[in-house]
Specification:
With 136 residues, the chain is mainly alpha-helical. It has a domain of 56 residues: Cytochrome c-like domain (Cytochrome Bc1 Complex, Chain D, domain 2, Orthogonal Bundle), CATH 1.10.760.10. Helices cover 32% and strands 3% of the residues. A two-stranded antiparallel sheet has the order 1-2. The termini are far apart.
Length: 136
């Protein structure tokens, strides 16, 4: 691969910036003796260093708080024993909590749905599910 004049200059400039970046030696230095064990474990784990954990709990606006309460409220179901989170479990990527493709529902939880539970993780990029004949 042959770099043209502008590409070669850009490559050299990027290399110079990386080499001149402040704090390179400090990042390699050992943590202070009073550092917490969790911090030293995070420094050794190559995956955790790329994860950004929020420093404080995020306060949701009232509409989002209401939506969260409705998502976990079992009283809104026909049986009173099931919520949205029963099928869209946050601990399982907002998918089904068990290996069953179809989840039970209805007043006595005896009816199976007609489609499998989709994960809500990709909700923003998933086409809307609808029945064309039911729409006016």
């Amino acid at each position: 691969m042959r770099l043209r004049g502008g590409g070669l200059i850009a490559l050299a400039l990027c290399g110079a910036i990386v080499l001149a970046a402040p704090g390179r030696d400090e990042a390699r230095a050992a943590p202070p003796a009073d550092a917490a064990p969790a911090a030293s474990a995070a420094a050794r784990d190559p995956v955790t260093m790329w994860v950004r954990y929020p420093s404080a709990r995020v306060v949701l606006d009232p509409a989002a708080t209401l939506g969260r309460q409705m998502f976990f409220d079992k009283a809104l179901s026909a049986s009173g024993r099931q919520s949205c989170a029963s099928c869209h479990d946050p601990a399982h990527a907002y998918g089904p909590p068990n290996g069953a493709a179809l989840q039970p529902g209805g007043p006595a939880l005896e009816r199976l749905s007609t489609r499998s539970v989709p994960s809500l993780r990709y909700l923003r990029v998933t086409p809307q599910f609808s029945r064309p004949l039911a729409q006016p």
